């Protein structure tokens, strides 16, 4: 059972999303929201972020009801972080139509006293300098992880490498892994990143699932074969939330726990794609999650019937 | 054990390949060669193809030694099919530097009498009209499959759809599946193709592995995490050879056999990438294949520890 809280630090946003399936405007979003919506199905979550004075805080009530502590969500005068994106017909590519940092530009994460003992610490995709400041504020975490993006890999490389040297796990997508490592081959990319610090490297591959490098183990989980991807926004953050949620729930992070955690991550990432924003996770049940994890087992399971070498 | 021979009809070529790892010129290649090199590790193979009078037939001796019957390999006056390709640094993209059809342009596959009873029939990527003519020549096969490419999807659509309506299985890559079906979503693409005829659709995803749609089942096998991809040429054909080889060896094609067959396919595809041309498969042993299949099991296996719904 649960072994302490999950801490997540990251963006809390208002999104405007267009896909071939429709359009949603002024809906709650941001990495910390998607992460919390997924992780709170498993364990208590402590969220650190910032919003402007126009943010519809009541839209986060479903998180509170699931045990997400919003004591670290600062509300400041000004506009909230806003992002807009339009997905192409293939749903695998999108254009960013606008990014408005608002109060997020001045975000300096300060952990409430009660958050400092969090056991499972996830640093969402923010300035690596801020990620370092959060690492300085936590006391004896069980596992620390960070996400990042091309913007920081290019523009804040040294600070990012300092973060990577200090954390236990990094989650990033395949293009980011290639960019960070300089290796087109994802196996080489994963091994290169491990050598820079983190024992565990998780490469998110969108429709192709995820890869885990943990010590000298490699594990793959496929993408769930959804026929209707309604909105992929935040799927990578929901993935991380499912992964962290599972680890916190199990209270352990040995390689077999991590393998299962990646599958729970893929399950939550797939649910997230089924509706606009984090909506699908609002009333998602544990039974639905367990059903999907069982489906994942069927997706990759095979048995040995004949053995060439001895036949 | 083996339940009849495998028949493969396809190109037998001379390739010129450049990769960041080096260069090979005038090496044996073509879909039927890669397929046979893989399949012959499992079961007898009957090859139908055509080469010019300059073809180094002795380079195919390793196939003969493994039970590949070359009675259907016609040698005609003229030049052999020649293909040249240069791989980019990421090894996932390549430029075709030349294609010279030679005697392959007039290829009209005629099955030797002893080949007509083949149980496992694989129609390599050739003109769909020729694929249809081969289907007319076989007698009571257990399973028929075809491969194809963008050239035929665009230029011989009606004939290709006739092939697809008649065969039991199609193997094609993800871009081809999207192009053929008009669906960007691979699950929709797979289901769409199944609805046109084949019970089994196998989508090859290169470094991301392969997906099998079989009746209402879906199965994923990952790409093997090779650190050094020396030459990806023919990997899809070696994949198909491993898949067909396993099916012929087991003598059955129920869904659990197909799942295992896809894993054997991924294993052979990965071996094929380890050296230029089909070279790695020349002295590949059954023990090495079985070792790799066991690795595939570890790559995707996870166990259930806690159940959210009951915890």
Care to describe what's here?
The structure is a homodimer of 311-residue chains. The first copy, chain A, has one domain (6-300): Ribokinase (UDP-N-acetylmuramoyl-L-alanine:D-glutamate ligase, 3-Layer(aba) Sandwich). Chain A has ten helices and 13 strands. In chain A, a hairpin with a 6-residue loop joins strand 6 and strand 7. Chain A is of the alpha/beta class and 311 residues long. Chain A is globular, with a radius of gyration of 19 Å. In chain A, the strands form two sheets. Chain A has a nine-stranded mixed β-sheet with strand order 5-4-1-8-9-10-11-12-13, sandwiched between helices. In chain A, helix 3 (128-137) runs parallel beside helix 5 (157-166). The longest helix of chain A is centred in the C-terminal third of the chain and has 18 residues, at 255-272. The mean pLDDT of chain A is 95. At the A-B interface, helix 7, strand 13, helix 9 and helix 10 of A face helix 7, strand 13, helix 9 and helix 10 of B.
In CATH, the topology of chain A is named: UDP-N-acetylmuramoyl-L-alanine:D-glutamate ligase
Structural class of chain A: alpha/beta
**Considering the protein shown, what is the CATH homologous superfamily of chain A?**
Ribokinase
Low-confidence stretches of chain A: none
Radius of gyration of chain A: 19 Å
Number of domains of chain A: 1
Assembly annotation:
homodimer
CATH classification, class level of chain A: Alpha Beta
- Global shape of chain A: globular
The largest contact between protein chains, plus residue counts on each side, is: A-B, 58 and 58 residues
The chain-level mean pLDDT of chain A equals 95
The number of strands of chain A is: 13
Biggest pleated sheet of chain A: 9 strands, mixed
Strand order in space, largest sheet of chain A: 5-4-1-8-9-10-11-12-13
Named at the architecture level, the CATH assignment of chain A is: 3-Layer(aba) Sandwich
* First-last Cα distance of chain A: 46 Å
β-strand percent of chain A reads 15-25%
